[in-house]
Amino acid sequence: MTVRDLDQPRGWAFGLAVAVMKPTLLAVSKRVWIDGEKIPASGGCVVVLNHVSHIDPMMAGHFLYDHGRMARYLAKAGLFSNKFLRTFLNSAGQIPVARQTADAVGAYTAAVQAVREGQCVVVYPEGTITRDPGLWPMTGKSGAARIALETRCPVIPVAHWGVQDVLAPYGHRVHVIPRRTVTVKAGDPVDLDDLLALPEKERLSLQSVQTATDRVMAAITGLLEDIRGETAPAERFDPRKAGVSMTGNPHKQQKKGKDN
């Protein structure tokens, strides 16, 4: 169900990924694409999504590809340790990021450069699969907002639901039969006009970045509410306040804590 043809060179790595992953995703899911035309057809942009499964990036890439864009991800730096995988990811234009380290600054710089070169950079603002018990978006990190305020590019919120039925959060078994329905919905650009109108120092201040981040998370959550037909909790889940680690499988950690 291609809505808009890709109008830029794919490269061997991206072409290989499409050839392998698209048929695989079609085999395990029934797709419902909503408002994908809101993804800019060209030019630098940041696409922000909720995170409920390890295969989210593949499904998001499928959605963007069907709407004429190649996704550039902020990928875990550990994936680049393998020589072949590093070559593949570099060829596909993916951006390494070392989470919770100073190296993340380099990833931010690379993401800004990619946007300025007209690329579509995909960011999961939560930084990891949501720890919220109801799988609602958690509090967000500031990366996407900072990129947008630095480059003045549009930020397009996207929510997906149903991916967790194909592969559960932190699960290892893909559910093939019956095929699960996966719904992906894009929204209007996050309104940052008032922040972008500020002098540079104020525009890039911590307060402006936090305001932009809050708007990004609210936009994603609103789209997810539309898809699920439910209302999200009034207070966004904050793993730091809840004492939940941002790394590893939280379910295993909880079980280990109970065993001790």
Give me the secondary-structure topology.
Layout: H1 11-28, E1 29-34, E2 45-49, H2 56-66, E3 71-76, H3 83-91, E4 95-97, H4 104-116, E5 120-123, H5 143-151, E6 155-161, H6 163-166, E7 180-186, H7 193-196, H8 200-203, H9 206-228, H10 239-242, H11 250-259
Parallel strand pairs: 1-7, 2-5, 2-6, 3-4, 3-5
Antiparallel strand pairs: 6-7
Helix pairs in contact: 4-5, 5-9
Task: Give a verbal description of the structure.
The protein is 42% helix and 15% strand. It has 260 residues and is an alpha/beta fold. It has a single domain (29-259), classed as Glycerol-3-phosphate (1)-acyltransferase, CATH 3.40.1130. A seven-stranded mixed β-sheet has the order 1-7-6-2-5-3-4, with helices on both faces. α4 packs across α5 and α5 crosses α9 (206-228). The longest helix has 23 residues, at 206-228. The protein is globular, with a radius of gyration of 18 Å. The N and C termini lie far apart (51 Å). The mean pLDDT is 85.
The CATH architecture name reads 3-Layer(aba) Sandwich
Pattern of helices and strands: HEEHEHEHEHEHEHHHHH
- How many domain regions? 1
Ends apart, CA distance between termini: 51 Å
Write down the overall geometry.
globular
Number of strands: 7
Helical coverage, percent range: 40-55%
Number of helices: 11
Portion in beta strands: 5-15%
CATH topology: Glycerol-3-phosphate (1)-acyltransferase
Structural class: alpha/beta
Mean pLDDT: 85
Return residue spans where pLDDT drops below 50 for at least 5 consecutive residues.
none
- Spatial strand order of the main sheet: 1-7-6-2-5-3-4
Largest sheet: 7 strands, mixed
